[in-house]
Amino acid sequence: MNYQFNWGILWTGQSGAWLLQGVITTLQLTLLAWCLAVILGIVAGAFRTLPFAPLRWLSSSYVEFFRNVPLLVWMFFWYFGVPPLLPQAVQDWLFDHGAEFWAGMFALGVYHGARFSEVIRAGIQSIPRNQYESAVSTGLTIPQTYRLIIVPIALRLIIPPATNESLNLLKNSSVALTIGVAELTFQTRQIETYTAKALEALTAGTVIYLILCLGLAVLASRLERRFAIPGMIVQVKAD
Amino acid sequence: MKSNCRRTLPVILLIVLIGLSGSAKAETTLEKIARTGTITIGTRTGSPPFGYVNKNNDWVGFSIELVESAIAPVLSKKIGKQLKIDKKESTPQTRIPLLSSNAVDLIAETMTDTQSRRESVDFSITYFVTGAQFLVKKGNAINGLKATAGKRIAAQQGSTNARIIRERVPTAKLVEFPDQPAAFQALAQGQVQAYTNDGIQLAGLKAKAPKPDEWLVVGEFYSYEPYGMAMRKNESDFRHAVNVGLMDAIESGRYFEIYEKWFGQKGEVPYPLSAETKRFLQMQVVPK
Lengths: 239, 288
Prior knowledge:
The complex is a heterodimer.
Chain A: H1 15-47, H2 53-67, H3 71-81, H4 88-96, H5 99-125, H6 129-137, H7 142-157, H8 159-172, H9 184-195, H10 198-227
Chain B: H1 2-23, H2 29-36, E1 38-43, E2 46-47, E3 51-53, E4 59-60, H3 62-79, E5 84-89, H4 95-100, E6 106-107, H5 115-118, E7 121-123, E8 128-130, E9 132-137, E10 152-156, H6 160-168, E11 173-177, H7 180-189, E12 194-198, H8 199-208, E13 215-218, E14 225-227, E15 230-232, H9 236-252, H10 254-263, H11 275-283
Parallel strand pairs in B: 1-5, 1-6, 10-11, 10-12
Antiparallel strand pairs in B: 2-3, 3-4, 7-15, 8-14, 9-12, 9-13
């Protein structure tokens, strides 16, 4: 490979500021979309286990509709498809206040919400039926049973797969560059535009994603240990 | 010891892999072409008329035809056998990596020759000249660079135009899209008020739009965009062969026939060649 590397471009000029801006945008996008995804996921996941058919159908349709269409298509849907449905005044306001970011946030959040809900459903369904029955027999109502017993246990069980989903969400936020969101991958391309040094810029992006994801993974394993219920769930090995 | 080994093994493998990719025997582009009888070009699928997929689903264009009928004959003669042309999609982000990884041998699309790019790749002589303008819906007030202040403007990421707007009109709200179709869609829906790109590409977009009359290409050129064909650095024999192909075509008039086919009155995108540009192209031809 006859390519001359010039790593200097990463800390000369505006590259550093762009990368930082990109990291901030990526984190903002990820965090907001994650909150949306978790809320949607918990609601839809819990609904799918309820003994009440209409709610099960509602959340099944949500899950199957949103997880079975590629994320890229959802990006275009939220950016190009949704605004024309809104009143003109709202459209104008949105276009002046980062419509790209919000479209990207909804696309990520709603798509990953559907995926999260399956993780949560799996968590709920892995709890032995007698937990639910004992809770109800103590006089708790169904909503109370879910809120106080089922969901808290399920949330502990699903930390590993939920971490997986969260990492995917962070990495998938790069798809938002297709609708012009200036996140991390976008900024690495920006550096390429100015310096024509694509390999260096991509490497910087790769390393930053790796650091962000490793950080998240470490955080998640801490959480897992912190909230483990002694004796209830298979012991988490402390290493 | 055992656990230590487990941790270091992947790292060693990674280093070996990286090392292998660098130690492959260096073969010049001409040697590669002679060995395989094939030249792989990187071009576009969505930039009419330079490189695009037409109604019959054929991958054609002005840049592609220049390679086929001006450059390929010279290379064929040089290697002494029939040359096959393979096409691969390239984009502003991937074209330089595609060259450095040997995936393609020549970039023939809409790449502006710039000084910073010349630090990574080499360019042929200039084969097309254009400059940045704006595409707007008929009736829009934007008529040039200055009028973009405070307005929402779409640009193609990886282009030189976005950079100029950012420097010269910092109040313009730039939205950068990775490809033309998304940027044009945003313009059509009113997400942005204008789309800026090289004038010839806007003319191409207008010509291919469902209702070409609804769109206007406005503004004076606010940048100078000389298109060149890019290749790997320090391959002067190959570069010379490419240049000879282009120079012969300009000198013999073949270039202007091809130009007429794509940019003439009856061409895909009418874009008359100015006398000035014609003279410039001719003056790049050095004597035999």
